[in-house]
Amino acid sequence: MTCPNCGKLIPDNSSVCPECLRPIQNTSAPSPAPADPVLSEPAPSMKWYKFLIFFDLWAGAILNVLSGISQLTGMTYAAVGVTAGDVYAYYGEGLHVLDIVMGVAMIGLAVFSIIVRFQLAGYKKQSPKMLLVLYGVSLVVSILYSIIAGAITHVNMVDSSTISSLVVSAVMIVVNYIYFKKRAHLFCK
Predict the structure, then answer these.
(1) 127/45 Cα distance (integer angstroms)
(2) Cα(76)–Cα(82) distance, integer angstroms
(3) Total-model pTM
(4) Which of 25, 112, 113, 148 would be a feasible disulfide site paired with 61, CB 3.0-4.6 Å?
(5) Distance (Å, whole) CA 14 – CA 1
(6) Is the Cβ–Cβ distance between 74 and 83 less than 8 Å?
(7) Which residue(s) pair with 16 in the sheet?
(8) Cβ-contact 186, 21 below 8 angstroms
(9) Chain centre distance of CA 159
(10) What is the chain's mean pLDDT, rounded?
């Protein structure tokens, strides 16, 4: 069949056109549905959406798994030339427990990132909210780790790179909220 919005050839019984990403009305109905004012507007750009589902969420999941493994195994400290055993002997078992919790949290975020990716790709109604929750939880986990690790080690864990990372996370939440609010009509499954 052809998309009534853009005219491209699409699979029969499609609910969303893969080309213009607009919902498809059921064409087997005997009488045409009244014109939808949303569909008469130009299709919103979906480049960011495609970037999220084809790259960003996958890359984020991979990086979170690698970070989680690094936290769980203590490889985080090898980057600065110290063994995890030495760090835990000096700062105590509390830091070791925190690293284990952080490692599990990072792997959990990776799994949630993949779930969000498939929800977004399926145009599920709750998927934009799930994306915001993913970014929000990542932000909170980073803040909590910095605060708790700083309290355990008595070292200021907040530096310029940490602050810039937190600012980028907050901006991503706002940008995605605005982006998906304008495209909410597409996420209707």
Answers:
(1) 18
(2) 9
(3) 0.75
(4) 113
(5) 9
(6) yes
(7) 23
(8) yes
(9) 24
(10) 87
